[in-house]
C-alpha cells in the first residue's frame, strides 16, 4: 500500500497539546483524528472524519461525521468551524444516528389505492406508475392539475431542481415548499424595505453590539449554539431585550423581558417608535440620506402612544418607554427575530415594524448594528432563493417579471410561452386539493400532516388527490398516506450546499454511500424528467453539475452565487452571497455603503397598521394558544422522534399554563379551539402569561398542536398564523397517547425510541421559571 504523503506531513507537523492551555476534551478529539480530519483522512483505528455541517437548523454548525473502515457513519465530533466553535446542540450530537437507522426506507413502496397495503416494488415499477399517473391526470384535467411541494431542508441544488422540474417537466404552475411555513414573512418585509431577502449582518456582529433585541425567538432551545453570540455580547456589557409571551431560557437572562400578548407585536414596535420620535432619539441625518416614507411613518406612529399599545399588548406602558430608550440610545444596536413574530396573519407587518425601528435609529449596515432574521430550517435561506417558491425563479427572480422570465428561459432552453405563471402557496394548494383543482401531487422533504395548520383540512385535501407520491428516507405521517413512497438519501449520503441564517453558503460533504435500493433526490427527479420527455434538460449526473447551472442561473441577480464554487467553500468554510466573481470575498454585511438593493438605493419604510388576530376571542375561547419548538426535536419530528436520546429527553408534547388556572403539574388539560380539542399533561409554570397556552408542535394526531391551529394566512406572505388562535382549557380525565412513528410494512418500530412515549409527565425545570417539580 502506498503511504499517503499528506498523512506523513501531518505527523511531521503534529504539535503536542499543552494540558494547561488546551480546552477539556481537546486531546481526545485530536487523538481520534482531529488533526487530519480537514483533509478527509485519519490514520487512527481505520477511522475517517468527514467535515460537514448539521442537517437541522439555520445556524448550520460545523461537525465531523465519523466513518468506520467499512464506510459507515457511526458517530460525530464537534468541528472548530467559526460558526459554532466546537459546539453542538442535542439534535446535532444525535443527528448521525438517523443515517443507518433501522427505520430507514430501503425500497420503493407502492399501492394503487389507499385501501390497499403498501408493498415493496422495484424502482422501475414505482417510477413507471408515478409517470403514468402524472400523464393521466394532466391529460385529463390539464397540466396545473398536478403539483409539487418541496422543502427547505434540501440542498440548494435540489431546490433548484424542484423548481425547474415543476415548470419544465411537469409544465405546472403549482410548485411551492415548506419554507412557506417558516421564513416568508421576513422575506416579504426584507424585499419591501431593502430590495433583498436576507439578514443584513453576520452572527459575529452580535459580539460587537451594545444593545441586542431578540423578538419571537426561543434561541436557547431552537438555535442553542447561537446562544454563544448572545453570551459574548453580554460579556461585553450589551443590554439584552427579549420580546416573547413566554419567559424562555434566553428571556430569563434579559435586562428587559417584554411578555406581550400573542399577536400584538406590530402595535408594540410601532409604539416603541412613537417614543423614539417623541423623545428626539431618531437619527435624522441617516433618515434624510437613506430612507423614504419617513413622514408617513411618523404620522402613523403618532397613533400608537404607549398607553394605547400597553392596552393592546397587555404590558406596562413604562416598559415600552424603557425599550425605546435602551435601543435608541445605544451606540450600536441590533434586532433579530424568528417565527414568533413571523407566524401571523400580520407577519410581514410585524417584521416591517422592527425594520422601521432599526432604520429610524440609524442602526443599519454597521459592525454591531443592523437587523436579521434567524432561519428555522437548515436551508431556510437558500431553499427559497433558486426557484421552488411559487412566485420565484432562480436567483430570486420574479416569475411575474418579463425580463426575468426571458433570462431563465434562455438558460433552460425553453420558449417563454412554455414557462408557467406564478402558482399558489402551500396551504392554498391544500385548499385546491380539497376542491379537486389539484388532483395529483409529488412531495419532497416535507410532512404536512404534522407541519401544516388545521389538520382536518390537510387530511381532507390529501385524501382528495387521485395520486400522491412522496420522497423521504423515513416513512412520515404524510408519506404513510401516499400511493408511492420513494426512498432517498440522507444529508450524509450526498453532497451539496446550504445557506444559513447569515446567508453564508456552506458545503455538506458525502460521508457514506446510501443503502442498496436508495437513490439521491437528484437522480429521482432527473429520471422522472426523462420519463416525462424532458431528459435533455435534466442531464445532471450529480450535485456538482446542478450547482454549476445554478451558479449561471443566479449570475447578475441579487442572489448572485456565480463566484461561489465547491472548491472555494472547502477552502474558506463558507461564503456569504452576493458573490459575483470567483475572486470576490462575498458579502457578510449588507448596506455598509448606506445603499440598499432598490433602484434608488434607499430603505423604503412602510406604514404598519396593527389588527387583531384572525381567530377572534369570545366567552367560549378567551385565551391564546401559541406553538413552537423544543430543544430535543425538529419541525415535524419525522427524524428526531426516532432518535432514542431525544425521545427520552422530550417524549411527548405538553400544555404550558400559568398556575392561576388551578392545575397541578402532569394533570390532564384539554386544549379546545374552533378546530377541535386534545388532552396534554399540564406543565404549570409562572414563565407564561396567564392568558396564554403553549404547546410544542412536533407530534402527529392525536397529540398534534396543528390539529388545533387556524389556517388563516398573511395576505402578502401567505404564511399561516401558527402563533396565535383563540382557545380555552378544561380539566380532562385522560391524556392523549403519543403515537409511534410510522414504519414500512414488515418493520417493527425501533423499540429504543418507544420506551419513554408513555411517560404522562411533562419535562421539568429547563422549560421555565417556577415549573412545578415532578413527583
UniProtKB/TrEMBL annotation:
<feature type="domain" description="4Fe-4S Mo/W bis-MGD-type">
    <location>
        <begin position="47"/>
        <end position="103"/>
    </location>
</feature>
<dbReference type="InterPro" id="IPR006656">
    <property type="entry name" value="Mopterin_OxRdtase"/>
</dbReference>
<keyword id="KW-0479">Metal-binding</keyword>
<protein>
    <submittedName>
        <fullName>Molybdopterin oxidoreductase family protein</fullName>
    </submittedName>
</protein>
<keyword id="KW-0408">Iron</keyword>
<dbReference type="Pfam" id="PF01568">
    <property type="entry name" value="Molydop_binding"/>
</dbReference>
<dbReference type="InterPro" id="IPR009010">
    <property type="entry name" value="Asp_de-COase-like_dom_sf"/>
</dbReference>
<dbReference type="InterPro" id="IPR027467">
    <property type="entry name" value="MopterinOxRdtase_cofactor_BS"/>
</dbReference>
<keyword id="KW-0004">4Fe-4S</keyword>
<dbReference type="InterPro" id="IPR006963">
    <property type="entry name" value="Mopterin_OxRdtase_4Fe-4S_dom"/>
</dbReference>
<dbReference type="Pfam" id="PF04879">
    <property type="entry name" value="Molybdop_Fe4S4"/>
</dbReference>
<dbReference type="Pfam" id="PF00384">
    <property type="entry name" value="Molybdopterin"/>
</dbReference>
<dbReference type="InterPro" id="IPR006657">
    <property type="entry name" value="MoPterin_dinucl-bd_dom"/>
</dbReference>
<keyword id="KW-0411">Iron-sulfur</keyword>
<feature type="region of interest" description="Disordered">
    <location>
        <begin position="738"/>
        <end position="775"/>
    </location>
</feature>
<dbReference type="InterPro" id="IPR050123">
    <property type="entry name" value="Prok_molybdopt-oxidoreductase"/>
</dbReference>
Amino acid at each position: 500500500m502506498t503511504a499517503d504523503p499528506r498523512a506523513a506531513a501531518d505527523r511531521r507537523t503534529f504539535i503536542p497539546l499543552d494540558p494547561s492551555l488546551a480546552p477539556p476534551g481537546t486531546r481526545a478529539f485530536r487523538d481520534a483524528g482531529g488533526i487530519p480530519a480537514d483533509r478527509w483522512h485519519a490514520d487512527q483505528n481505520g477511522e475517517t472524519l468527514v467535515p460537514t455541517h448539521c442537517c437541522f437548523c439555520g445556524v448550520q454548525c460545523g461537525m465531523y461525521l465519523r466513518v468506520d473502515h467499512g464506510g459507515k457513519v457511526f458517530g460525530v465530533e464537534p468541528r472548530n468551524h467559526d460558526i459554532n466553535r466546537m459546539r453542538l446542540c442535542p439534535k446535532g450530537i444525535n443527528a448521525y444516528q438517523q443515517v443507518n437507522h433501522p427505520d430507514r426506507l430501503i425500497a420503493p413502496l407502492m399501492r394503487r389505492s389507499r385501501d390497499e397495503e403498501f408493498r415493496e416494488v422495484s424502482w422501475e415499477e414505482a417510477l413507471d406508475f408515478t409517470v403514468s399517473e402524472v400523464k393521466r391526470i394532466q391529460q385529463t384535467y390539464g397540466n396545473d392539475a398536478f403539483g409539487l411541494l418541496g422543502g427547505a431542508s434540501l440542498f440548494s441544488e435540489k431546490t433548484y431542481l424542484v423548481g425547474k422540474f415543476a415548470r419544465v417537466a411537469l409544465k405546472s404552475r403549482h410548485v411551492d415548499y415548506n419554507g412557506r411555513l417558516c421564513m416568508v414573512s421576513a422575506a416579504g418585509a426584507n424585499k419591501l424595505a431593502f430590495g433583498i431577502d436576507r439578514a443584513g449582518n453576520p452572527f459575529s456582529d452580535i459580539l460587537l453590539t451594545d444593545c441586542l433585541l431578540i423578538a419571537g425567538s426561543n434561541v436557547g432551545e431552537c438555535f442553542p449554539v447561537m446562544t454563544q453570540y448572545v453570551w459574548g455580547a453580554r460579556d461585553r456589557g450589551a443590554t439584552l431585550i427579549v420580546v416573547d409571551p413566554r419567559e424562555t431560557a434566553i428571556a430569563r437572562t434579559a435586562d428587559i423581558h417584554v411578555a406581550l400578548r400573542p399577536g400584538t407585536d406590530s402595535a408594540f414596535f410601532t409604539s416603541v417608535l412613537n417614543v423614539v420620535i417623541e423623545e428626539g432619539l431618531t437619527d435624522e441625518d441617516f433618515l434624510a440620506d437613506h430612507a423614504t416614507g419617513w413622514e408617513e411613518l411618523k404620522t402613523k406612529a403618532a397613533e400608537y402612544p404607549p398607553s394605547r399599545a400597553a392596552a393592546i399588548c397587555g404590558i406596562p406602558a413604562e416598559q415600552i418607554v424603557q425599550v425605546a430608550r435602551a435601543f435608541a440610545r445605544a451606540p450600536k444596536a441590533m434586532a433579530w427575530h424568528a417565527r414568533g413574530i413571523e407566524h401571523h396573519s400580520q407577519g410581514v407587518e410585524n417584521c416591517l415594524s422592527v425594520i422601521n425601528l432599526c432604520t429610524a435609529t440609524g442602526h443599519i449596515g454597521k459592525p454591531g448594528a443592523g437587523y436579521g432574521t434567524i432561519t428555522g430550517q437548515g436551508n431556510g435561506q437558500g431553499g427559497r432563493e433558486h426557484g421552488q417558491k411559487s412566485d420565484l425563479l432562480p436567483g430570486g427572480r420574479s416569475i411575474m417579471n418579463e425580463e426575468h422570465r426571458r433570462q431563465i428561459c434562455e438558460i433552460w432552453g425553453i420558449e417563454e410561452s412554455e414557462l408557467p405563471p406564478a402558482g399558489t402557496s402551500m396551504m392554498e394548494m391544500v385548499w385546491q386539493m380539497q376542491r379537486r383543482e389539484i388532483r395529483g401531487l409529488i412531495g419532497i422533504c416535507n410532512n404536512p400532516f404534522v407541519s401544516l395548520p388545521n389538520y382536518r383540512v390537510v387530511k381532507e385535501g390529501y385524501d382528495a388527490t387521485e395520486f400522491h407520491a412522496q420522497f423521504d428516507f423515513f416513512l412520515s405521517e404524510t408519506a404513510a398516506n401516499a400511493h408511492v413512497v420513494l426512498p432517498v438519501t440522507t444529508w450524509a449520503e450526498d453532497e451539496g450546499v446550504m445557506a444559513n441564517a447569515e446567508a453564508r453558503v456552506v458545503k455538506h460533504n458525502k460521508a457514506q454511500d446510501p443503502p442498496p435500493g436508495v437513490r439521491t433526490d437528484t437522480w429521482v427527479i432527473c429520471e422522472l424528467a426523462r420519463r416525462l420527455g424532458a431528459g435533455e434538460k435534466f442531464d445532471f449526473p450529480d450535485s456538482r453539475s446542478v450547482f454549476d447551472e445554478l451558479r449561471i442561473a443566479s449570475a447578475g441577480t441579487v442572489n448572485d452565487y456565480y463566484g461561489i464554487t465547491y472548491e472555494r467553500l472547502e477552502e474558506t468554510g463558507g461564503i456569504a452571497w452576493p458573490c459575483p466573481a470567483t475572486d470576490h470575498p462575498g458579502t457578510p454585511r449588507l448596506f455598509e455603503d448606506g445603499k440598499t438593493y432598490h433602484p434608488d438605493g434607499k430603505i423604503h419604510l412602510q406604514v404598519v397598521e396593527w389588527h387583531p388576530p384572525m381567530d377572534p376571542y369570545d366567552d367560549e375561547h378567551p385565551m391564546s394558544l401559541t406553538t413552537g419548538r423544543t430543544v430535543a426535536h425538529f419541525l415535524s419530528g419525522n427524524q428526531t422522534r426516532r432518535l432514542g436520546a431525544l425521545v427520552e429527553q422530550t417524549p411527548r408534547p405538553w400544555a404550558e399554563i400559568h398556575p392561576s388556572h388551578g392545575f397541578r403539574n402532569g394533570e390532564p388539560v384539554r386544549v379546545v379551539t374552533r378546530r377541535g380539542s386534545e388532552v396534554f399533561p399540564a406543565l404549570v409554570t409562572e414563565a407564561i402569561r396567564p392568558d396564554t397556552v403553549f404547546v410544542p408542535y412536533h407530534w402527529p394526531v392525536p397529540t398534534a398542536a396543528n390539529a388545533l391551529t387556524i389556517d388563516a394566512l398573511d395576505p402578502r406572505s401567505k404564511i399561516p398564523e401558527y402563533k396565535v388562535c383563540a382557545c380555552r382549557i378544561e380539566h380532562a380525565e385522560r391524556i392523549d397517547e403519543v403515537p409511534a412513528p410510522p414504519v414500512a410494512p414488515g418493520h417493527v418500530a425501533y423499540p429504543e425510541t418507544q420506551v419513554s412515549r408513555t411517560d404522562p409527565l411533562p419535562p421539568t425545570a429547563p422549560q421555565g421559571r417556577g415549573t412545578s417539580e415532578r413527583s
